[in-house]
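Ops channel
N.P.: pipeline sanity check, posting one input/output pair.
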């Protein structure tokens, strides 16, 4: 029967199994136990206070009607004390949620971001950055709320259900059984409901990510869109994406409304039966007015938790979807982890028969490349667009691994003789180590384009060296021909907007070079020597020839670093000791 129903509802197979998701959620819960336990304790105490209120109301009514003996004022006073206790518990729950909730969410976002930053980079991003941000914001919040609030709330709801059931059972066992008779049917269909709702929710979340991705790209490239006069095109594209999101939301809402209607119909029928039962007993004088009031309160306290438990199903569906989306962010394996491996300066890099392809369909980007970046030398890497210069940078920085061949880093004191391009070495040098992410500490990398972050110039420079002194920053700026910084009204504390807004491209590029050069300085705070291999990727593209000449002379004057220039400019080669020309591979 269930197989036919699943087929009818087209229940899909999930990307992850239920056990896998539960294990992931259990691991995520470990860091949020304090808040979960506090919420659970508050919820359970609230259940006790609520059931005591039922008893207090029954007693007060029966005292007022003369059915029971007692002091009416004392009975009402007890009711008032219990109401105040309920208020206090609600306030405590709000404080726990607001004080610990945001901390738990921040902690999980940090853990997820750390995991992403330490994972292997595949060369091509699988997910749009807007989609990743959507997951880190909304899905993390969903998971944390579920673990710290929904689960503890479910415990108190279950406790309320059990407590109210046994209280009602002690008064009328038959009515108690009739009231909960609907639950087995509800549980039987819930599994199918969960799977279908999970699929619909996943579709909604995925399209919500696409909407955010569209918005992010449009804002990020606003100037380009304006110059292309494509304003309407981008707004229409957003409308198309939002329209599909709305359609998915409508489908989910239809399914949810129909399901809730069936469940609520069952609960309403149960309440009417309980009311009729209590009214008949009261007409037969086997139940007092206070007893009937207690009956109806207890039936409500059984059905309300049951309704809340029913609401847990969409919560489970939502958190399962959120967990799946966050687990997908962790699919890329971690890079090699461990202490940084420093190689005495100056050090060299040697490529032996290195080949790389992003995927088999596109073919090799680099094929059988051998070259020696000798210690203390300056090398210009030339090649037309698409020849593999960017891929070479990623290989040198150990962001990607060669598919064939090897890359070694070695000490300068045992520098081998120059290796002719296209030839390999017959054996490894005794001081050479196979390049890995742990060697990245030896590199200074200056990417092309404007890479400044929002904040002050000082904030940007300190990213290169956290404990950089004012004098070190001044020296790095001077070497980078960026002395103009000290002519600005606020100097190092000049505020830049996103991507160096407020500065020219050339100014921003020179500050970015200074930031990277600071990484070459020794750091006492981080207990590290200076990085000795400098990789510049079209880092002077926004500079005029005279400034570029002065900057290159400043960088190369000491001859204590191994410098690699990725460039299109032939003029740069006159400052270099050797040239590596990469030819584009035609498939």
């Amino acid at each position: 029967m269930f197989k036919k129903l699943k087929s009818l509802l087209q229940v899909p197979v999930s990307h992850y199994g239920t056990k896998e998701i539960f294990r992931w959620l259990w691991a995520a819960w470990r860091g949020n136990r304090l808040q979960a336990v506090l919420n659970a304790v508050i919820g359970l105490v609230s259940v006790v206070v609520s059931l005591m209120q039922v008893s207090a109301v029954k007693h007060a009514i029966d005292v007022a009607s003369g059915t029971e003996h007692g002091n009416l004022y004392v009975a009402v006073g007890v009711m008032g004390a219990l109401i105040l206790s309920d208020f206090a518990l609600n306030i405590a729950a709000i404080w726990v949620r607001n004080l610990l909730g945001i901390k738990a969410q921040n902690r999980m976002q940090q853990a997820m971001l750390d995991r992403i930053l330490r994972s292997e980079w595949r060369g091509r991003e699988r997910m749009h950055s807007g989609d990743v941000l959507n997951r880190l914001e909304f899905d993390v919040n969903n998971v944390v709320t579920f673990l710290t609030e929904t689960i503890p709330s479910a415990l108190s709801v279950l406790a309320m259900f059990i407590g109210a059931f046994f209280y009602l059972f002690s008064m009328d066992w038959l009515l108690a059984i009739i009231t909960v008779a609907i639950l087995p049917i509800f549980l039987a269909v819930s599994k199918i409901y969960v799977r279908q709702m999970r699929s619909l929710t996943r579709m909604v979340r995925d399209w919500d990510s696409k909407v955010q991705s569209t918005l992010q790209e449009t804002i990020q490239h606003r100037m380009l869109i304006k110059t292309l006069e494509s304003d309407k095109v981008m707004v229409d594209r957003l409308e198309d994406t939002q329209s599909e999101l709305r359609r998915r939301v409508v489908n989910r809402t239809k399914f949810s409304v129909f399901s809730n209607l069936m469940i609520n119909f069952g609960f309403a029928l149960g309440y009417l039966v309980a009311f009729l039962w209590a009214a008949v007993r009261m007409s037969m004088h086997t139940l007092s007015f206070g007893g009937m009031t207690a009956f109806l309160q207890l039936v409500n306290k059984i059905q309300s938790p049951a309704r809340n438990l029913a609401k847990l199903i969409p919560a489970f569906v939502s958190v399962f979807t959120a967990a799946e989306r966050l687990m997908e962010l962790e699919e890329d394996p971690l890079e090699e982890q461990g202490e940084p491996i420093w190689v005495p300066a100056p050090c060299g890099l040697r490529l032996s028969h290195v080949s790389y392809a992003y995927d088999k369909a596109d073919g090799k980007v680099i094929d059988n490349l051998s070259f020696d970046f000798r210690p203390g030398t300056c090398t210009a890497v030339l090649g037309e667009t698409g020849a593999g210069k960017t891929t070479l940078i990623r290989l040198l920085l150990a962001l990607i691994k060669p598919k064939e061949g090897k890359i070694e880093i070695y000490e300068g004191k045992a520098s081998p003789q120059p290796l002719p391009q296209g030839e390999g070495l017959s054996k490894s040098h005794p001081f050479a180590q196979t390049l890995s992410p742990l060697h990245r500490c030896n590199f200074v990398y200056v990417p092309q384009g404007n890479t400044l972050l929002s904040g002050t110039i000082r904030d940007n420079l300190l990213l290169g060296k956290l404990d950089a002194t004012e004098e070190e920053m001044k020296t790095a700026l001077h070497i980078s021909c960026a002395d103009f910084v000290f002519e600005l009204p606020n100097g190092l504390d000049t505020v830049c907007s996103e991507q160096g807004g407020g500065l020219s491209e050339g100014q921003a590029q020179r500050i970015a070079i200074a930031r990277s050069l600071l990484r070459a300085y020794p750091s006492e705070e981080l207990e590290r020597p200076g990085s000795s291999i400098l990789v510049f990727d079209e880092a002077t593209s926004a500079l005029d020839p005279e400034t570029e000449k002065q900057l290159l002379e400043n960088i190369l004057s000491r001859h204590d670093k191994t410098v690699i220039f990725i460039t299109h400019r032939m003029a740069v080669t006159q400052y270099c000791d050797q040239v590596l020309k990469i030819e584009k591979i035609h498939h």
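N.P.: looks fine end to end. Confidence is low (pLDDT under 50) at residues 1-13, 414-428.
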